[in-house]
Amino acid sequence: MAKNPDGSWTIFNRAYKPLGVVKNDRAEWDDPRHKMFLKGLGPGTLAKLSYTGKADASDERVYFYDDGSSPA
């Protein structure tokens, strides 16, 4: 997921398209249709969400798994 300039977050898939976008069209992460404000995303929660187990409040992206793993 990626943090937007306004503090909201956009969750994206492996193709770096916002979740729910299936077309090959270009999609802006900063589009209001793809943004959500999530509470409680401090360093501890971001670290738990990150596949590396490391994150801090200044991180602008959190990856749930690495490119070599199966999301299943």
**Share of β-strand residues:** 5-15%
Note the total helix count: 1
Tell me the total number of β-strands.
2
Domain tally? 1
The major beta sheet can be summarized as: 2 strands, antiparallel
Q: State the low-pLDDT regions, or none.
A: none
> How far is the first residue's CA from the last residue's CA?
17 Å
What structural class do the secondary elements suggest? little secondary structure
Question: Helix-strand pattern, N to C?
Answer: EEH
Keywords:
10% helix, little secondary structure, 72 residues, flat, two-stranded antiparallel sheet
What would you say about this model in short?
The protein has 72 residues and is largely without helices or strands. The protein contains one helix and two strands, in the order E-E-H. Strands 1-2 form a two-stranded antiparallel ribbon.
Textual characterization of the structure:
The two termini are 17 Å apart. A hairpin with a 5-residue loop joins strand 1 and strand 2. The model has no long low-confidence stretch (mean pLDDT 83). It is built from one helix and two strands; from the N terminus they run E-E-H. It has one domain. The protein is low in regular secondary structure and 72 residues long.
